[in-house]
């Protein structure tokens, strides 16, 4: 892929955590409240550059976990990790940083 990109001088932006959010939420069968709350966590996390150097799917999964627990939904890190195809240990490590953020209030 990178050979083609270089050959044709294509610019492919890196994946963002927000790109993974709908798939993870859908896989876990959560509703729009979780997606909105997780999106708010991701907005703050990217504004504060907490996502830099981290796998975007893992950051999204951590935001989903934080949102679901914040909404008192039954969820565990392994289920979220499986939905995002990342390690539960990764979510556990990133959770503290994400949890310290206050999700922005949604007006939807």
What's the CATH H-level superfamily name? Cyclin-like
CATH class: Mainly Alpha
Provide the CATH architecture: Orthogonal Bundle
Helix and strand content put the structural class at: mainly alpha
Mean pLDDT: 88
Provide the number of structural domains. 1
Q: From N to C, what is the helix and strand string?
A: HHHHHH
Model regions low in confidence, pLDDT < 50 over at least 5 residues: none
Secondary structure tally, helices: 6
Helix content: 55-70%
Shape: globular
Please indicate the percent range of residues in DSSP E strands (runs of 2 or more): under 5%
Descriptive account of the structure:
The protein is mainly alpha-helical. It has a single domain, classed as Cyclin-like (Cyclin A, domain 1, Orthogonal Bundle). Helices cover 63% and strands 0% of the residues. The protein contains 6 helices and no strands. Helix 2 packs antiparallel against helix 3 and helix 2 crosses helix 4. The termini are far apart.
Q: Mind sketching the topology for me?
A:
Elements: H1 2-7, H2 17-27, H3 32-47, H4 56-70, H5 77-84, H6 88-99
Helix pairs in contact: 2-3, 2-4, 3-4, 4-5, 4-6, 5-6
